[in-house]
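seq/struct pair 1
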Amino acid sequence: MFDVSLWGYGEWAATVAAAVLGVFLIGGAWAVTRPGDEVLGHPKGLYMLFFAEMWERFSYYGMRALLTLYLVKHWLYSDGSANLIYGAYTSLVYITPVLGGWLADRYLGQRKAVLFGAVLLTLGHFFMAFEGDGSGYSNDPTLNVFWLALALIIVGSGFLKANISVIVGQLYPRTDIRRDSAYTIFYMGINLGAACGVLIAAFLGETVSWALGFGLAGVGMLLGLVVFIIGKPLLKGRGESPVPAKLKEKVAGIKLEYLLYGVGFAGVGVIWLLIQYQSLVGGILLVSGLALLGYVLFEAFKLDKEARDRVFAMIFVILLMPLFWGLFEQAGGSLNLFTDRHVDKGGIPTTFFQSINPIYIILLGPIFAGLWQWMARRGIEPSTPAKMGLGIVQMGLAFVVMVWGANAFSTTDAAGQIMMPVLFLFIFYLLSTTGELCLSPVGLSAMNRLSAPHMASLMMAAFFFGTAGGNYVAGFMGSLMGEGEGGNMTREGALDAYWTMGLVAVGVGIVVMIASPLVKKLMHLDTLRDDDLAGDAELGEAQAAGIHPATRPAE
């Protein structure tokens, strides 16, 4: 292990990733210890949130890269079952922010919600290290610990995911032009953690032991929790409870705050049962999605016309999420298995390819942020819905190009298996990443920029709910591919499905781009003012919605 002359791609990549993490940690320590409230033009709190989220993503993506392979190779599930479990898990990760966002808006505040979520996540990732005896899901009772670990991670994400993004926005005024770059910095922290989590934790999990990989993910989450606790003073009071006195009131002899944490632990029990019956998750998503939409519309009709129109625009954005993420999340499910079996990897571990997307984002994120601002200053920046339509088109093209490459350039290996050149996997991730950069941070921006103040976390949670639908769709489509030979997907079946997905996405993306001027009118961007928040700071990313106004006082 320590003889560098024997190292392969994995050892070198993990070493480089560890060195990169070290450089960023040193840079972060330098930033937060500088005199003054700002460093490099941004509040110190941004850098603290950067590192807290970086470690959370280290743990999440380290585990995500392993999960489908772990289900198939260790727990001995079929491809179809593994994809459905993966889809149910990732969808629930994105649906629980509805509860976490609502509790933060009404009672806990974002900071306490993030803190509680981080505790649950740390426990969940450490429980993942209990891998049992390897005899398969039908024989090993340790499977119940695995379900508990997933439940803790799901509920923990619900409290942390939407709310930490909200805190970032609270550090800036609503029309502050620095906010695009702030969210780009934050987004790069997400992807730095994701890339390093794959290259370090997932690599060791795949090549040494599952327990080591998942255990390192737990260490990463613990570090994120420590960073968030130590960095509390840098938030300058942002994200605190809107009703601190009420949290101290007793309900049935228990402080309301502790009672709310009890609700969170009860949620773990519910999810522990639910995650074992993945086929029910789709129906629950549909029913709860309709209920959430009804609640959002109910709240919208209490608002004035412009605010109500903005809610309609946000609903349009949310409805695009299931399609995009249903395609994008094939990367962690069916495409992970396809890569393992049908791609000429040249000796590179399968999990490593999960790091391509976050690495591309780190490289391309600043370019896109600069591009939007350059276009904005010249009055040619696309609107939010136009950018999102463009993102969906690119996601579709990722599949189209990959399938074309697999059909036109595949070769046969020594065992007689048809293998796709790895180049087309890199092209797939490039197009899906540029699509993500046109859609995800832009949609995140629109949610909080356009939200009424009392609906900020709710709308952010609704945005993640749309993503949840996409994740379930991803798993469900992957499970259909797994209905091939002996419950495992075939190469031809997967390529046929990918081709259809790609063509549908390109068509939908074009329609969205055509409809974008009508949606932009609903946003009423020209009348947004800082005083819309009654004196509070903005609750999310701002400027990707189509214009970049200079910071100005409310009229």
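seq/struct pair 2
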Amino acid sequence: MGALADLLAARREDILQRFEREAKARFSLEGQPRSVIRDTLPQLLDELYELLSAPGNGAEPSAIRGQMRQTAREHRAQRHALGYDVTQIVREYGIVRDCILGLLEETGGVLILSEQRALHRGLDLAMGDAVADSEHGRDEERREAEQERMGLLERERAARAEAERQRALLEGIIAQSGDAIIVVDAQGVLRLFNPEAERQHGVPLKEVGPEQWVETYGLCDEEGHPLPLERVPLYRALQGEHIRDELLWLHRPDGTRLPVSVAARPLLGPDGAPAGAVFSARDIALRRALAQEREEALALVDTLLSTAPVGLSFLDRDLRYVRINPALAAINGVPVDQTLGRTVWEIIPHIAPTIEPHYRRVLETGEPEFNVEFTLPSARRGGAPGHYLVSYAPVKDREGRPVMVTAAVVDITDLKRFEEQLRQTAEFRERFLGIVSHDLRNPLSIITLSATLLLRQETLPERALRLAQRISLNAEQMARMIGDLLDLTRGRLGGGIPITPASCDLGPLGRRVVSELEVAHPARELRLEARGDLQGEWDQDRLAQLLGNLLRNAVDYSPEGTPITLALHGEGEQVRLEVRNQGEPIPAAVLPGLFEPFRRGELRGSRSTSGLGLGLYIVQQIATAHGGGVEVRSTHEEGTVFTVRLPRVASRRA
């Protein structure tokens, strides 16, 4: 292998760097990346190395020649994209040759004649292909130029067609414009008068000069006097003046007068010389009518604000008061005239942190907030706390964006005071019932004990025995009613019915309760269903009371001759108790308040009950005390079903 091939192998990067410097110096390549400047040169050096390394250094192999031609074509295409002509490409190959030979000379290498011939053949081959491609490229360029010329003609035709279309469009826009459009030439003769101009003036286009404008088109002032020509906006535009938003009145042939808002400006020709003037007018009769309606609406709003018994205000997005009525100003303790234009932080700084988030939320979401209750110090009450119910609502523009927020403030301090009085009255009543019920137990116990002793007397006459039985039965009923009243008092005032959980089996408990009820109601069919594990920790006496209340309720409100079922189901961590009876379903309107105290349903037939309407309330309180709940469903098909769910272990409450 010769010195030239060794150079290409060992100093390849030096050759590339020399080429890069020379190319930048001779061609406009500043700012181009290295990859663009070098382009296919690294590949060309590899191909020259292969050519010099070919055995015998004879005629170059066909494979290498094909590679070099392909490389030359790629190089020519890239340089053509940069704007190179064939001369510049040939000069680049000359730079490559000079860089290789110059570096060889500097390193003291000896150039073998065969290597020199191979180097020149390779570079000449690349240059020849580049020139050939260039000639082919010029033919392509000529064809492209012709195509470009044809394209230009086509674009020109399209541009003319587009101009015609735009002209037709402009004429259509002028014809359909909601504004009157009038154009005069440099002499002031009317040349364009669109349909809206004809409608406003009540007169079609007449090609008249300035001296006839006022009379022909009824130009006048607000009092109806003819307008002097020097005050006519179109005439002033002819003199070079620009007019905008000026009021003009048109006295039409039918005797009506129309207010219009006008604009006018001079027209200049391509050379800048005056070419006429253009005038546009907008019918503002409707706008003036709407403005009057707006003033009337605002007057109505002001009347409402001043007479409304609740506090009303409107605030902008910066939470500045736009309007406020005297009622709210009195609550705030700042007069109306000193409130307008100021923020809530300036007017009521002591409560602004509390109410600002509600204003912001309404402005951000566009959704109202109703009946937000506050207890705040009131200036009207000398700083004492007042109770208020506030509703916030957005005021939106035509696009539906909140631009203001309104607040309605209702002073409910007196109502709260009345509610507190009612609550205290109810609490007193319930405490009184509890005390009375508790105190009645002692005399009732004596009555019960006395009746029991009488019933044990074997020598008691039959009539006295019946009286003793009646006393005992009614005493038992009174004891149950007193117990219900005491449970009501505990539930309403004592934080719930107290329970004492202990180990319990609902199976035997259910059988005992059913047996006791069968004795009292021998004519009714009572069924017991028990499935699964029914063991747990509950207050046995309270659950007996719960089941007894539900079963007695079913007996009272179901037809005679229909069965009543108590179903007990063990279900994992809880048990389910159900009491089912047939008959008319409970009305839907009654269901929501069924478990409230003193609610008694309507009994059918001759039956009656002396209960207080506390049975279902006490059922709910006992279930709640055990950490469970009760619900009811009632339909024609299924009948009425009360369902109680209890956890197996109740929380202990004393």
